[in-house]
Amino acid sequence: MTKSNNEPWNLPLCDIVMEGGITSGVIYPKAVVTLSKQFRIKNIGGTSAGAIAASATAAAELGRLRNPTVDPGYSRLSKLADELAGSGFSNNKSTRLQDLFQPQKQTRPLFMMLISALNQGPKEKIAKALVLEAFRQFPIHFWAAFTPTLILLVIPIIWAIISGYADNWLELIFLFFSFSLALLLSILVGTAALFFAILSIVKGPMVENGYGVCKGYDAKADTLKPGDVREPLTLWLHRLLNECADKQSNDPPLTFGELWKPGNKESDPPEWLQDAGITEWRYVDLQMMSTNVTHGRPYRFPFKDDDQHLYFKETELRDLFPGIVVDHMVAHARSYEENRYGGEPQKLPAGMHMLPAQEDLPVVFVTRLSLSFPFLLSAVPLYATDFEKKDKDTRVLERCWFSDGGICVNFPIHFFDAPLPLWPTFGIKLEDEQTRYWKITQDLNINPTIDQNDPNRFFFPTQNEAGRGESWTRFDDATDGSKKLGGFAINLINAARNWHDNMLTRAPGVRDRVVRVYLKKTEGGLNLNMSPNLVKGLSAIGELAAQKLVERFTQDSSHIMNFNNHRWVRLRNLTGVVEQDLSTVHQSLAARPPAVIDWSKLIDNASKKDAQYPIDVQQGKKTKELLATLKTLSMCASTEPEILDKQSPRRTPIIRITPNI
Predict the structure, then answer these.
(1) Of 374, 504, 508, 587, which has the most beta carbons under 10 Å away?
(2) Beta bridge mates, 15
(3) If you write DSSP's letter for every residue of 462-498 in order, what string do you get?
(4) Which of 427, 386, 632 is nearest to 546 (CA)?
(5) Structure confidence by residue, pLDDT tens digits, 477-525
(6) Are 344 and 309 in contact (CB under 8 A)?
(7) Residue ranges per structural domain of the chain
(8) What's this model's pTM, rounded to 2 decimal places?
């Protein structure tokens, strides 16, 4: 990690992975600006809102390669928090951040109810805010149900009074209670009308809107000038990425190919890497996660190859993306005749196109796939073939809904891991203050200044054994039974979603390069209506978190937890787990189970014509050489089993075969 001069392409390399969290993404812009002063950010990963920051960072790295004097990308990102904290247009209190999320007319009542419930504190206040906003959004529904019900119930009471029924005080009391009951029943009927009005939008317009209240785009906005506060999210994002990459805001979209191969000599691998046998080099490698809800699994974009066949319907994407983005995707769609599988339909339906090759895929398209927060932002429809259908003639392209990447993986810190890293991969993990023993008392709305050493805000291990402790969410501390039950239900979902992220963040070789940042419930997350001070305060938190990483991992750092320490931890990890696995390999090679073929003969059989996954002579020779090497290594590991595991970093990781996501 030697820095020869201050040109951006000669800076030491680092990677960064960014966690999701909707508005929590405002933490990242100043964080990456701080890192960019000491490192060139080579590999960038993100999911959900972290995908916005990840794609902007990738564009900024390309921008400073193209124009190092102006450095358009990082210059823009350094001011992004102020831009998002600026005034919006929807009302006198809204910020630019809030107004990026623009609901469709039919779903606007649901969006306004969501906004009204934010930052309300106790659940009782949230319920009250929701009811009041529902009344404001659906007054006709309420009165249309309340008024006739009340009239029908009160008529007999009025008739009784006129008929002289109320001759004594007992009868008056009875009539009073009858009227009160009539009023209560009328209110209940009116409230039921509100409920069914809301339900009708949820079942109708919201479903038709792609299961969200905001599409993130409106075709009418394409005529807006860049920087107009009325730009919706996806148009704003397309222009932001172009500007950061030193393109014109209304140029065709930034593509992954531009990030990978900028086309000048400065984008070649560093000299110290050229002798390492690298066969493929990407100047900037951006990767993001999305969730295919229909398939029930995450998808990592861009794919490692073009083996994943996905399709899009042009008319559907024009409702979700700027016209220039969809035009690019149509123009660069892969040929169906040349790329289709044998089991796919013979012809594409009219208006359907295969996704472009990965190098031609717009970055803004994948970013939008990743940040489709459920029910807030519409999911994105793509199409695929169900190959499980036995009758090929009945196979058609079927819609798949892509939603938020954070549903499956919210903090993909594993994206760029190597057994023995050549440079560090950083992470900033956002956690709830409830995972700590204390509460954050500072109100960023009043004072957005952050103390870098505030233990209530940051945790960054100062020794190798620190940071192993579990994450605690103490829902059982609630005094109310309903709150306990609600906490239990929510944490069932969180455990299913986040168990992998939580465990990996606390693993050796990971916890020493991840700064944990603690946020209050009113900070980040779904809080679209954060105050300008709060937005700026969160941005400052990100800047300070990045400073902690810089102080520890720059080339001249003498900190006990510097990059050389990190490399040593990873080496101990690797040798320990390899020793364990080689012991198992030794057992498999030494044992002779009955009625099975010897490993060497299995290799020979694989060269036959009818073999499954056949290999040629050269492959067979290399397989045998590798097997012999494994046998020698496994014998070494088995002579003194688990000797390398002694005093190794805890928690001990494992090597296993797992899907390559």
Answers:
(1) 508
(2) 43, 425
(3) SSTTTT-SPP---GGG-SSHHHHHHHHHHHHHHHHHH
(4) 427
(5) 778 888 888 888 888 988 888 888 888 888 888 999 999 998 888 888 8
(6) yes
(7) 105-208, 472-505, 564-569+576-639
(8) 0.88
